[in-house]
Amino acid sequence: MFASLPASTIIYSPGRHKADQEAMPLSSSGTCIAKSASPIDNGYLRGRLDGVGSSVEVAKGQEIVGQGDRADSCFEVIHGCVRTLQRLEDGRSQVSEFLLPGDIFGLDASGEHEFAAEAVTAATIRRVRLCTIDLLTREDAAFEQDLRHHLCYQIKAARRRLVALGRMTAAEKIAGFLLEMSGRLDASEQGAVKLPMCRGDIADYLGLTIETVSRCMTDLKRRNVISLHGSLIAILDRRLLATKETLH
Amino acid sequence: MFASLPASTIIYSPGRHKADQEAMPLSSSGTCIAKSASPIDNGYLRGRLDGVGSSVEVAKGQEIVGQGDRADSCFEVIHGCVRTLQRLEDGRSQVSEFLLPGDIFGLDASGEHEFAAEAVTAATIRRVRLCTIDLLTREDAAFEQDLRHHLCYQIKAARRRLVALGRMTAAEKIAGFLLEMSGRLDASEQGAVKLPMCRGDIADYLGLTIETVSRCMTDLKRRNVISLHGSLIAILDRRLLATKETLH
DNA sequence: CGCTATCTTGAGAAAGATCAACTATTGTGG
DNA sequence: CCACAATAGTTGATCTTTCTCAAGATAGCG
User: Fold this and answer.
1) PROSITE patterns from the xrefs (chains A, B) (predicted)?
2) Does the beta-carbon distance from B167 to A94 stay under 8 Å?
């Protein structure tokens, strides 16, 4: 996620540490302008679980996995949208990911799930036992490699989100989110996408409040960067959204 | 990371979605109080790379991997402390992890490293080619499994940090950080640990400013929850640190 | 068509950031 | 071993962003 944040914002700059210049060059590129990895490359396991497991229908809002549930299965979203999240006892919650058709979750679990999974919309999901995954991994070298790539991608995606949550402003978070979603969701004729999740989910994904999410979006609309009618959103000026357009 | 945050704060609570109650129970535990996974279980690969690769000495502050470097190697910290981080062009930076002896980084890379790695202190690191890892994975089923567990742990660790960055207050972040570090670093006789990283690194790890880190720590000291003299820190009241002691 | 959810908007409060000294610690050369 | 410079850490005053609380507007659903 957030792979589609402005590539130009990620760049090596001299550290604040004096010792930076010392000793032998271990990194192959000393001072190098880096760009983020390609936006959408988490399809390593796409189609790999076809035919295994059993599919289930879940209603909007229904819990698929509870925090603390025994982790014996992983899931692939066939249709609809799912969120993984952790809830704190005081009501705060943090969404880890939004999962769309083809996305898999719960692969990383061992022991018990630390994050719950809930249906954002009515959804169809395929449940696959982790022992099946184990088996596939042992017997199919190509699957093993794809699985490994998939896990590595999850790590990178989570770390990208760390940067967003730790160091981005509300406006930047929203911009990154809209770019991410417009890349992952199917756009209609007019280039608009229907966000499956509500403002509250977006807020919990970005570490903001509902009100801040709403205000930032309204602001982008006012400046003609996006158009929005409820959950229907179109990006009008991708350039501006992806650039440092320090709103306000 | 943050595995040692108050387990009691992580709990399932009824969602805000009306539809929560609907349909069949897919999750084995409906309403369940979940606790976080065991604090320190990232040792899956500990010792597995002994004998492979070559070790290198790096000076304090030296860059080991640059943002955008070709990802052909991973690294194990033998001695010292390393940080992985991403720098934005405007100077903001986000530390992803602090790595201590036995910890491995760069395993998740493919293509190019999105995060830089820099020595927090003078350090000894072992460099292992990723093709060597590939080879080991293919030839040693036990290694493959350990590697997979390791990657899964990294995912969970990153997601735990997502909760901290997105939904915790400055005081909670600091408390969680101190608990994490006191668990990972060797304590002296008096139970004190010497933090290898400076306040700026801590700030970049937690998404705060240096000043806020300093203030929170001073506050904890004033309330006799910790003792601190520069980078030497001892936890005096672990209970209080791990509980909702909403400072301020 | 009305009810409920969700979303938007405004005003005030608060957490944390910023700017600016000032203090302490560490490391170095005389 | 001390003095000094450099780095790191603390503290205070003020400002900004985001949150909170509250009300009103919209939209979706039965």
Assistant:
1) CNMP_BINDING_3 (PS50042), HTH_CRP_2 (PS51063)
2) yes
Distances A92 to A139, A142, A198, B15 between C-alpha atoms, Å: 43, 41, 16, 11
Dump pLDDT digits (tens) for B137-196. 999 999 999 999 999 999 999 999 999 999 999 999 999 999 999 999 988 777 899 999
Mutation target among B148, B160, B212, B244 for the A interface, most CBs of A within 10 A: B148
A135, A161, A187 - which closes a domain: A161
Give A28's contacts in chain B (Cβ within 8 Å).
66, 69-70
Q: Could you tell me if A148 and A184 lie in one domain?
A: no
**Do A61 and A156 fall within a single domain?**
yes
For B94, list phi and psi in degrees, rounded to 5.
-125, 120
Beta bridge partners of A222: none
Q: pLDDT confidence of B49, banded at 50, 70, 90? A: confident
- Residue A13 pLDDT greater than 80, yes or no: no
The pLDDT of residue A245: 59
Question: Rg (Cα) of chain A, in Å, rounded?
Answer: 20
Calpha distance A206→A199 (Å, rounded): 10
Write down the pLDDT at residue B13: 35
**From the CA of B203, how many Å to the C1' of D6?**
22
Nearest CA in chain B to A198: B17
pLDDT at position B41, please?
55
Cβ-defined contact of A22 to B166 (cutoff 8 Å):
no
Domain membership of residue A1 (yes or no) is no
Sorted by sequence, the CB contacts under 8 Å of residue A86 that are 6+ apart come out as A67, A93, A94, A96, A114, A115, A116, B10, B159, B163
Do B198 and B236 have their domain in common? yes
* Amino acid whose CA is nearest the C1' of D28: A230
Residue pointed to by tokens 């390791």: B150
Q: Looking at the structure, tell me whether residues B207 and B144 fall in a common domain.
A: no
